[in-house]
Amino acid sequence: MSKRFTASATAAALALTVTGLAVPATAAPASTRTFTVLAEDGVSIDTAIAAITAAGGSVVSRTDDVGLFQVTSARADFASRATAAGALVGAAEQKAIGRKPKLDRVEQEHLLAAAATKGTAKGHGKKLDPLDDKLWGLEMIRADQARKIEPGDRRVTVGVLDTGVDASNPDLAPNFNWALSRNFAPDLTDVDGPCEVASCLDPVGTDDGGHGTHVAGTIGAAANGFGLSGVAPRVSIVELKGGQDSGYFFLNPVVNALVHAGKSGLDVVNMSFYVDPWLYNCTANPADSPEAQAEQRTIIEAMKRALNFAHHKGVTLVGALGNNNEDLGDPRTDVSSPDYGADPYPRPIDNASCWDLPTEGPHVIGVSALGPSGKKADYSNYGTEQISVSAPGGWFRDGFGTDTYRTDANMILSTYPKKVLQEEGSVDEDGNIVAGFENSVFKQCTAKGECGYYTYLQGTSMASPHASGVAALIVSRYGKKQGRDGFGMSPDLVEQHLYRTAAEHACPEPRLQTYANEGRGPEYDAYCAGSLNFNGFYGYGVIDAYSAVKSPLKPNVRP
After folding, report:
1. What distance in Å separates the CA atoms of residue 466 and residue 392, rounded to the nearest whole number?
2. Which residues pair with 168 in a beta bridge?
3. DSSP letter string over 293-322?
4. What is the pLDDT of residue 484?
5. Residues 50-104 pLDDT 10s
6. CA dihedral 1, 251, 22, 338 (to 10 degrees)
7. Residue 297: which residues within 8 A CB-CB, separation 6 or more?
8. Is the pLDDT of residue 373 over 70?
9. What are the strands of the beta sheet with 364-370, ordered from one edge?
């Protein structure tokens, strides 16, 4: 019997059928290109494959659970033909315009700032691991106190959907789950550079981007008397490589990673990215071509299906709110998209029909970023429409008027691959820290000579893993045995408890915050709407690991 894909009620509520587009009778051949194609809701897999073939495509791989196909085609008009097919939602193409710069303008602001002040973190009392005194974020969310009650359960699995995880770091190795980890994103030579292995599929346990390793350390670096420790230092870390080495996150790898997370029974998945190439995916933006509109509808529907699938399978989904310093309920004109495949152009964003994915997708806990002072970081997105909670994300410019202003120590320190630090020039070929980077990069070695490296980053990408770590502690504390070998907790209950135990934080006064003192223009001005219980800067509050593991679970009690 032919398989038939049926979307969940939530995803199916959005009608995305595209018909009536003219298809040329003939088309000149072009070089082979790669597409992600999505079947319409209710269409059988066999019917979808037949439609793909008729449009001139060849199926390379398929994900039946959500009706997703990776397709190659030499036809220049394949995308329009696929969109016109009644059995298909549309096609999203992967194509390059150039290599992304290695340094991120927000996350690595301290390395790009010409007038940066090199500062050191002030001690925060006795900690378990040597570098923990630099982790002000652990103290802010009381994770240092929480671990005395609940340090995490090895049965609890946290997926890091990111650029990979460097499992050779002695702080990550003890908690790395090799059995469940997967790489869904083969290297693309046009943006990632030459492949490191013949298959172009990097081995599990490696990270040539660095971002995923940093996220993983914040979630679950081991409390082992070495290096530093994570929010949940005894949970299991699962690599879900869905991002390219260059930092791009494309639809097919991300969807396949989410489906794997659901089918493998992961408890939490952290998503510190947005799906390229569109900052906002819109159903029918007048600024976009018909082909671009169809591509975005494909991304919207595929992501909603994948997120719904993972949630239905018991996965708590946590996402970074974004670093575009804007209210997600009132977005500005998008001038950065597409960031891959063509030159960007201005796109006015209609909030009713445009989504920043995955953070605005179903069941995703959206996290804003705070600096050590507790203020919303200038770069962090915000807004009552999508925010859930707030967490330490680092803010290089925090502490204006004090000796901590523009210091590395205001950011988030975590694990990082040696190879990437060498490429960035802060570690030499012998593995030693280069002069001038002593306050931003750290090296720790075990008695056996195994060395781990650590560096500072900032962003909502760093805030989200703090929340994922607390979610993992909640599952560890209150999860139950499920089935024969399983262990877990309803993601709805995890979400409720996370919100209920967050530390309420009122909007600042005045509510309209400017960042002029920090050297930012009026485009960074941010208005905090809402009440003490829930507002646009802090959501339900600042996550509180200690309260989360100490407060009794109250099912069906809303925050």
Report:
1. 7
2. none
3. HHHHHHHHHHHHHHHHHHHHTT-EEEEE--
4. 72
5. 999 999 999 999 999 999 999 999 999 999 999 999 999 999 998 765 444 455 7
6. 180
7. 16, 18, 89, 90, 281, 283, 284
8. yes
9. 182-183, 236-241, 157-162, 268-271, 316-320, 364-370, 387-392
